[in-house]
Design goal:
Rossmann fold; 2 domains; 12 helices; 11 strands; binds aspartic acid; Aspartate carbamoyltransferase; Asp/Orn_carbamoylTrfase; aspartate carbamoyltransferase activity
């Protein structure tokens, strides 16, 4: 199949701006095809011999490991670097030089870097595919794709449709790159109400709201949870991106944006789903998404994280143009794995 992800006629995934509804849904059908592999029933070696360069110049657990695992589950191998301090960039090497050098070693790169626009610079200096794994407070397109895929999967179980739904995005909307990509993606759908709930100092950048509003959805900004959560179908909570703050913020405003069981029961419906890109800060006093929701079936965060593998496999097979080969090259997995992956 012709690659559904293209950027200036090259196979890079840099921004959600590259997608329309059709190409997103094509990618999701490829992600669906991966289910026998991600549920460990089947194996597939379509990327045998290919090497992924997983270059993370900022902290990561999920994105780095899930991109790596997705590549391995398609039969490829992974070379990793982690942290800025241990890279040649700490010796003054430019993005362009790093990208040109790594192009000689691997077949595709996933890059996370603290500066906005940096991953596009990597892409401009190479002819191998580059995937944006998070460029500072810019975008995190693979996260938004797996978030939307999760919303659609959860809605399917609840007999709901995304068109016409009400989605609340809560927390640090200024620096949270996942929500910057997510609002662009949601705006490809129709009749949505999107409530952006954040402290005044952490509001979603205006250009993103303007861009999303042109598509005809209702976007409202709220500075309090009490007025924003009623009748929502999805709560998408986020962590305060303290590593990007330039000054201290008032702790009281943090606590009032925490999503917990009491607030969910008070303001929301019985079938509201609760999402978070993770990590959540579970340390006492952190006021992130509360752990008192952990046994509530509305909490979708681990199902959401699991979907990251399907989506990232779909991204690789699309960018490397092997998606046509997936179904027919599956074989039975031989090892024993638990039916339920984690205690509930
Ligand atoms: N893991 C996500 C990111 O890298 C969200 C977060 O860190 O809060 O942007």
């Amino acid at each position: 199949m012709k690659n559904t992800i293209s950027y200036n006629n090259t196979n890079h995934l840099l921004s959600i701006d590259q997608f329309d509804r059709d190409s997103v849904e094509k990618l999701f059908r490829i992600a669906d095809m991966m289910k026998p592999i991600t549920t460990r029933q089947k194996i597939c070696r379509v990327l045998e011999g290919a090497v992924l360069g997983n270059l993370f110049f900022e902290a990561s657990t999920r994105t780095r490991v899930s991109f790596g695992a997705a590549f391995c589950r398609l039969g490829g191998s992974v070379c990793d670097t982690t942290g800025f301090t241990f890279s040649s960039m700490a010796k003054g090497e430019s993005i362009s030089d790093t990208s040109k050098v790594i192009s000689g070693y691997v077949d595709i790169m996933v890059i996370r870097h603290p500066e906005i626009g940096s991953v596009a610079q990597f892409a401009n200096a190479t002819n191998i595919p580059v995937v944006n794994g998070g460029d500072g407070p810019g975008e995190h397109p693979s996260q938004a794709l797996l978030d939307l895929y999760t919303i659609l999967t959860e809605f399917d179980k609840l007999n709901k449709t995304i068109d016409g739904s009400h989605i609340a995005i809560v927390g640090d909307l200024k620096y949270g790159r996942t929500v910057h990509s997510l609002i662009k993606l949601l705006s490809l759908y129709k009749g949505l109400k999107i409530s952006l709930i954040s402290p005044n100092i952490l509001k979603m950048p205006k250009y993103l709201i303007d861009q999303a509003s042109t598509k005809g959805n209702v976007i409202e900004e709220k500075n309090s949870i009490t007025s924003g959560l009623e009748n929502v179908d999805v709560i998408y909570a986020t962590r305060l991106q303290k590593e990007r703050f330039t000054s201290e913020i008032d702790i009281d405003s943090e606590s009032s944006f925490q999503i917990n069981l009491a607030k969910l029961n008070l303001y929301c419906k019985k079938d509201t789903i609760v999402m978070h890109p993770l990590p959540r800060d579970s340390r006492p006093g952190s006021y992130d998404l509360s752990t008192d929701l952990d046994k509530d079936p509305r909490l979708a965060i681990f199902r959401q994280a699991d979907n990251g593998i399907n989506i990232r496999m779909a991204i690789f097979s699309s960018l490397l143009e092997v998606d046509d080969l997936i179904e027919r090259s599956m074989k039975d997995a031989k090892w024993k794995s638990p039916k339920i992956l984690r205690p509930i």
